[in-house]
Amino acid sequence: MKLTYTINADIALIDYLNNHYISKAKIYNLFNQKRIFINNNPAKVEDQLFINDILEIEYNEEIDYKPIHKDLDILYEDDYLLVINKMPGIIIHNDDKNKTDSLCNIVAGYYERKKINLNVRFAHRLDFETSGIIVFCKDLLSLGYMNHYISTHEVKREYRLFIEGMMGKKRGTINLPIGEDRHIRNKKRVSKTGKEAITHYETIKYFKGYSLVSAVLSTGRTHQIRVHFSHLGHPLLGDILYGGDDYKINRVALHSYRVCFKHPITNKKIDLICEMPEDLKKLGE
Fold first, then answer.
1. Reported confidence tier of residue 112, pLDDT bands at 50, 70, 90
2. Residue 100: inside a domain
3. Residue 97: its pLDDT value, please?
4. pLDDT over 90 (residue 184)
5. Whether this model's pTM surpasses 0.70
6. Is 127 noted as a catalytic residue in this protein?
7. What is the rounded average pLDDT of the residues 119-139?
8. What rounded mean pLDDT belongs to the chain?
9. Domains held by the chain: number
10. d(Cα 148, Cα 124) in Å, to the nearest integer?
């Protein structure tokens, strides 16, 4: 399967590939296997790209997760990206690709129906219980780009969450390092020896005994939002692991609400919002 890339500025081919943060090994393999073409001609490492040139990359791939056929809530799709609304209660991927319990398996089923013969590539993760926006990349260039700019936090991601009680300030920044909890596996905690973790928040609405909050991360630590709010005495509703109560909702009340980034291929601004699912909407009524 070939994907095409319309060049929008004069640039050396190797610089174009490097600007999408593809590893040297993958670039070497693309050239070695003669899978790169410019205007239908096999490309060489030293080639120059000019505006409106057509770059093609041949992907000798197959769908690499076992497909299962369930509906997907697609927020945006083109030849390079698939952005979907993840339902709560499902993992993003399983190390055993023959299992059928992950979102990647559902995406694989979608690819199979659409005859998209490509690997299933997710650009980031969401926790099992978290709902909302997640980005899949169909090709190496988009994945390399998104991985890099998510890691540098130039891809803006906003979350909506319900916390117990209310913060002392309507808006603020939580800057507390996060490390491993030595006593409970897969649990994190605020720790002086942990890694830097910064969460910006703003309270949207107050309710009796809890609040709806918006959070934007400047770092991407595992369970960062959950750990930060729990440490300050305001665990997320439903978050039993971090001291929350499940009397109002039986899962962590966390939703990936908005994502904003420059498209890795077209350079157009992508700004997507995903409204909260019904279980969270009921908390906000």
1. very high
2. no
3. 78
4. no
5. yes
6. yes
7. 96
8. 94
9. 2
10. 11
Torsion angle of alpha carbons 231, 232, 234, 239, nearest 10°? -10
- Report phi then psi at 156, rounded to 5: -85, 125
Phi (first) and psi of residue 214, to 5 degrees: -100, 140
Distance CA 14, CA 170 (A): 48
- Give me the pLDDT at residue 100, please: 84
Q: Would you say residue 227 lies in a domain?
A: yes
**Which residues, other chains included, contact 129 with Cβ-Cβ below 8 Å and sequence gap of 6+?**
88, 89, 238, 251, 252, 254
Residue 162 in domain: yes
Mean per-residue pLDDT for 125-130? 94
User: Catalytic: which of 127, 246, 271, 279?
Assistant: 127
Query: Can you give the C-alpha Rg of the chain in angstroms?
Result: 21
**pLDDT over 80 (residue 98):** no
- Of the three residues 35, 58, 81, the one that is the final residue of a domain is 58
Q: Does residue 90 lie in a domain region?
A: no
Q: Which long-range contacts (CB under 8 A, 24 or more apart) does 264-273 make?
A: 264/20, 264/80, 264/81, 264/137, 264/141, 264/142, 264/145, 264/146, 265/5, 265/80, 265/141, 265/142, 266/8, 267/8, 270/76, 270/81, 270/83, 272/75, 272/76, 272/83, 272/133
CATH number at residue 14: 3.10.290.10
Work out the average pLDDT over 244-264. 95
Q: 137 - beta bridge partners? A: 81, 121
Torsion from C-alpha of 43, 57, 95, 230, nearest 10 degrees: 100
pLDDT for the residue numbered 285: 78
Query: Domain range spanning residue 23?
Result: 2-58
Is the pLDDT reported for residue 96 higher than 90? Answer: no
- The enclosing domain of 234 has a CATH number of 3.30.2350.10
